[in-house]
Amino acid sequence: MGIQSFDDEDLYWMNRRHDSAMAREAYYIARECGFANISLDLIFGYSLLSEEKWVRNIETLLSLRPEHISSYQLGIEKNTKLGAQFARGEYSPLSDEQSYLQYSTLQGMLSDAGYRQYEISNFALPGFEAIHNSSYWDYSPYLGLGPSAHSFDGDTRSWNCASIIKYTNSLQNGKRCFQSERLTSGDKFNERVMLSLRRVEGLDIKSLKELSLMDDYASFTKQLKDLLRQGLVVEEGDKIIIPSDKLFISDGIIRDLFI
After folding, report:
1. CATH number of 8-129: 3.40.50.150, 3.30.750.200, 3.10.450.50, 3.40.50.1220?
2. 218: buried, middle or exposed (CB in 10 Å: 19+, 13-18, 0-12)?
3. Bridge partners of 180?
4. 214-239 confidence digits (pLDDT tens)
5. Is 100 left (phi over 0), alpha (psi -120 to 50) or beta?
6. What is the mean pLDDT of residues 81-87?
């Protein structure tokens, strides 16, 4: 459930259709209907969100005790109202330091409440990790049905056309409306690095070595040594892991390991 915030002022600013009371009511209705596995989403890292307000958001979330929690930093996208406001200088995002503090607060409070962080943006009570999302991160093949849906067979990624009309017309004519790309060895290597290091369990070095050419792996090893020396990643057996306090800057760390 994309609650995003329990603060009505913030929900109005986000142009959400619901308020905090409606969000809680929807959650209780789902419980009354017998749902025993519910995931709730929150957003952090935007200008209206003070540290005090963020703590209240998390406390309200924890009082509901969902089985799974996802939390994402607000991004500014082009061709959106917020993107236009940012371009005109009418919106100033939180600093990286303030967003990092909010992320750290989230990690600490959820850990204290018994939730395990298993991916950059995802936390779960034991046994309630998302099976669907995890299949993307562990490189499992998957089939997407419907407009804009993506599929992956281990070698090729494909995506259906976004138009419902084009999609249905193609099916009626016995055809498929889609585009695809076949991954190179370098693509597979970089994707394995990215998807594995998103997860707290980390990157298996042995499996990665099988995907690369000798020169590529040598380049990766050199970059890895630099990151290990800086403490941005750590070795645990055959795994490379981004420490919990460095997950907020994981994009940069992962990018440095691309070949």
Report:
1. 3.30.750.200
2. exposed
3. 158
4. 677 888 889 999 999 999 999 999 89
5. alpha
6. 93
